[in-house]
Amino acid sequence: DVRHGPILYLEDVSVSFDGFRAINDLNLTIDDGELRCIIGPNGAGKTTMMDIITGKTRPDHGSVWFGSRHDLLTMNEPQIASLGIGRKFQKPTVFEALTVFENLELAMAADKRIWPTLTARLSGEARDRIDEVLVTIGLTAHRDRPAGILSHGQKQWLEIGMLLMQRPRLLLVDEPVAGMTEQEMERTAELLTGLAGKQSVVVVEHDMGFVRSIARTVTVLHQGSVLAEGSMDQVSSDPKVVEVYLGT
Ligand code: ADP
């Protein structure tokens, strides 16, 4: 399917905490369907950037647009989420006592648009959607097991699945492979690259091997603004980037 223009657009965004500029004239454009990796040393502003996109933190100035129609700075967190912006934090927060299926069911119910249809049992359509997501995240065989007995990697995939239940247009994913085995990392790479195209995915990640394996475009943040942007080969051979990483 043909995509048009950017899905996310940050222009000259700045925010200070007690006089310290955590985000400093940040410019960032994410194209519709793109898979983008954001890297940068600790304190570069990656988390704050995600907080600004989701409405958790208000910038002091600048603009943040979702598509060409939604000025995110006029909206609160729930309003922004309801546009289809999903965020996955580093630690998995699945409901351990519920089955994988029930976790996905609940995630669907969290979508206010389907509350009216949840009066009795899930519709066939909803069940189909859960089955579809189970295939995407590779957990079909674990459908009726409690989430608490899943491996760390499987919990991470389940949580991504829970976000997918809401059919997001943009997924923000914080350090998805932290604590994963090599094999789980490979599976996560497949999952995230498979999602891109259908939705846009922004991944903050420290593992450079993983970043190299998934990203076409990498954005390097440093001191709250973009230090370099391009392919992994381009940014990793950029003297400014080398200096920042060797200097820390
Ligand atoms: P990263 O995620 O890249 O490690 P952060 O966005 O967490 O960076 O932080 C950027 C800078 O802003 C850091 O120096 C951090 O200490 C500071 N910072 C972030 N959030 C707050 C806050 N709520 N209050 C004060 N300082 C903050």
UniProtKB/TrEMBL annotation:
InterPro entries in UniProt: AAA+_ATPase, ABC_AA/LPS_Transport, ABC_transporter-like_ATP-bd, ABC_transptr_urea_ATP-bd_UrtD, BCA_ABC_TP_C, P-loop_NTPase
CDD domains: ABC_Mj1267_LivG_branched (cd03219)
Entry GO MF terms: ATP binding
Hydrolase keyword on record: no
Keywords in alphabetical order: ATP-binding, Nucleotide-binding, Transport
Domain ABC transporter: 8-248
UniProt-listed SUPFAM superfamilies: P-loop containing nucleoside triphosphate hydrolases (SSF52540)
SMART domains associated with the record: AAA (SM00382)
UniProt superkingdom: Bacteria
PANTHER family for the chain: CONSERVED COMPONENT OF ABC TRANSPORTER FOR NATURAL AMINO ACIDS-RELATED, HIGH-AFFINITY BRANCHED-CHAIN AMINO ACID TRANSPORT ATP-BINDING PROTEIN
Name of this chain's protein: Urea ABC transporter ATP-binding protein
Lineage, top ranks: Bacteria, Pseudomonadati, Pseudomonadota, Gammaproteobacteria, Oceanospirillales
